[in-house]
Design a protein that fits this description.
about 130 residues; mainly alpha; two-stranded antiparallel sheet; 2 strands; about 65% helix
Amino acid sequence: MSTPEGPRRVRVTSPRTSAARRPLIPTGAREIDEQTRLGEVYMHTLVQSQLRLTLAVIGSVLLVLGSIPLLFWLVPPARTLSVFGLPLPWVLLGIVVYPVVYVAARIYVRNAERIEAEFTEFVGRQ
């Protein structure tokens, strides 16, 4: 007597034997992604650092540029001085202001990138 043969078994294998594994997410980054309390503290710290930098740069620019009207108020003859044939107020407000703003922007960007790199390094180590 022959036994009824059922469906033949077939072994199925994946052709992707070297599939990429999911990268391990550092704990700090996972805390931020999952929006836990610790992640909120990390983000709050980053935002506070960036805010401090922003206020320091804006305050410095305002101090430098705000001293120009103060100069003209305290030293009235400075209003009529000429530099290379141009009135001093025009030179200060039309030429000197731009390099001051440019330097402040460069300082801000460099320090903001440093803060973000340090934050990324810190969160990546966790």
